[in-house]
């Protein structure tokens, strides 16, 4: 996976309005316990291969001196790579309906959101596609605290999607395409729920 492919996927999500301003970040796992992640403070609509940073999965730090500053959410990405060895890509974005559900969940203090009997659940690659319980994590200004919560709460059988209260959504998978597709599926689940029920499950 090259920086150009990462930039192309990021640009596509930006075009959908899911990576507003300089928000959001994408990464892919590299050989040797490393990952390639989008740099901080760069519009995903203008990102290029030069705007990605190689970091260590163990410590979330840039591998090369003088590299651009990696995304603020790097610690979340690396935590997911450590928890899910089969995952090779992570996408964090702010799709509007998923973010709305994350906000509503935070307001009511919910730790999970449950979706049932919706066809699009199949797109998450679960053993049982009839139901998915999506974890909702508390947002923290100090992002490593979110990563700590993820490390503490996520289990081996957790779905490859999560919400961060008052913030956005994160998905992961064996390829960048699959991680992106799962973001699209999560957004569809949240959109359908709000359009039909106007409540959160």
Features:
alpha+beta, eight-stranded mixed beta sheet, 8 strands, globular
Put the structure in a nutshell:
This protein is an alpha+beta fold. Helix content is 34%, strand content 21%.
Globular, elongated, flat, extended or rod-shaped: what is the shape? globular
Q: What is the first-to-last residue Cα distance?
A: 37 Å
Major beta-sheet overview:
8 strands, mixed
Please provide the ordered H/E string of secondary-structure elements.
HEEEHEHEEHEEH
SS field, number of helical segments: 5
Beta-strand percentage range? 15-25%
Low-confidence stretches: none
Helicity, in percent? 25-40%
Q: How many β-strand runs?
A: 8
Q: Rg from C-alpha positions?
A: 16 Å
Oligomeric state, counting identical vs distinct chains: single chain
Mean pLDDT: 95
What is the structural class?
Answer: alpha+beta
Q: Biggest sheet, strands in spatial order?
A: 3-2-1-4-8-7-6-5
